[in-house]
Amino acid sequence: MNFSPLLDHVLKHITLTEEEQSYFVSLLNVKKIKKKQYLYEEGDINKGPAFVTQGILRAYSLDKNGFEHVIQFAPPGWWIGDMYSFIKQQPGRLYIDALEDSEILWLWKSDVEKLYNQVPKFERFFRILAENAIAAYQGRLISNLSFPAIERYAQFCNQYPALIEHLPQKQIASYIGVTPEFLSKMLNSPSPK
Amino acid sequence: MNFSPLLDHVLKHITLTEEEQSYFVSLLNVKKIKKKQYLYEEGDINKGPAFVTQGILRAYSLDKNGFEHVIQFAPPGWWIGDMYSFIKQQPGRLYIDALEDSEILWLWKSDVEKLYNQVPKFERFFRILAENAIAAYQGRLISNLSFPAIERYAQFCNQYPALIEHLPQKQIASYIGVTPEFLSKMLNSPSPK
DNA sequence: CGACAAACTTAATGTAGATTAAGGGAGGAA
DNA sequence: TTCCTCCCTTAATCTACATTAAGTTTGTCG
Q1: CA-CA distance, A59 to A73, in Å (whole number)?
Q2: Which of A20, A79, B121, B181 has its CA 20 to 30 A from that of B69?
Q3: Taking residues B118-122, what's their average pLDDT?
């Protein structure tokens, strides 16, 4: 297994000795997830954040009519997880599955705690990670509340150009908060961008 | 000035010696904000998070038609800030003002960095704070994407019962993402809850 | 290769919520 | 008191987007 994408990512924010690095790596679990399989099994609450090394994961919620609403995509190099479930240690409201055959690295919640105690610098790392996520969520909320669908689509294209090619249109529709039919109509209408 | 609400809040998550506590307090700035005044002045990017001790603050974005969209309310005991602007050190997209005469404690960005160096336990404190905020934003997004307006209102009432009484209806309408007219109609229609 | 499912399109109809416009009540300042 | 501003309400009209229902194209896998 090649841990260097994750290590590089960590080392961008904090410095670690060789021993600290190998301790961190020793806590990591590898998991291969086939397309359509889930990251967490039913009621899995002791699993911590997951770092994507291959493929694409997706977090979504379900409404009462059974429709999916995409909360986040995670291509390689991104983290994904149900933060509510993780913090409160309660079953969450998020489903996380793979849109393609994928591979992730993940930590047990208890190992994350150990890591904080053994190498407190990781408190800093995950603080920075969390702050960036907040900024992203704030931006997403602004977008949802303040812009019409066509501009949310344009913003998505700007922010995630690599994803546009990779993702079925209906997933993008779900992310920006419209039906696949409406997105299709938007894209094939007067100003077809 | 009475710092104990903030100190109590901090001490719920980390333990601090007397000296650490007074060092922390020495970095705090107090500011009184009158109703309708702003937390940040034009282009203020070196100011860090603000902790509300009295009153209510509000963060909102503006759309191209000049309409306000509330991203967050902050009653006493809550933190508020423009995380994007804080992290990227760029002008943000959020306006933060007071809905009532208020009082806050705030830190310079540079003092937050000093605090992390002098008392690394604060990395842990702000990590926990940030993680909780993520959980809240995830919940808000789920709510916005997956539920109709009337249920978003019900959820708001459940989550912030104290705010319902305190806030003008139009602010709540803006938070749940509808016009004041429509909220009024909803509340005075068939099942008036 | 054939076939079955999944992805995209098109179009008719339906609806949640926006917009516009008007009027009424409560509080504050002079 | 009177005026003014802010807040809430009601109602008519409008629109962005959903729903339903075909049909078409693309992919995938036995």
Answers
A1: 7
A2: A79
A3: 97
